[in-house]
Amino acid sequence: MTVTTRPSTPPGGRQQEGRAALLDAVLRFRALGLVVALVLLVTTTWLANSRFLSAQSIRDILLSAALTLLLACGMTMVVVGRGIDLSVASVLGLSAFGTATVLADHPGLPVPLAALVGVGIGAACGAVNGVVIAYGRVPALVATLGTLYVFRGLVYFLAGGSRISAGELPRGFLDFGTARVLGIPWLFLIAVAVLLTVGEFLRRHRAGRDLYAIGSHEEAARLAGIPIPSRLLGAYVVSGTLAGLGGVLYAARYGTVDASAGYGMELDIVAAVVVGGVAIFGGSGSVFGAALGALLLTVINNALPVLGVDPFWQRAVVGALIIAAIALDRLVALRLAASLRRRDADVH
Question: Could you tell me the maximum CA-CA distance found in the chain, to the nearest angstrom?
Answer without folding.
Answer: 90
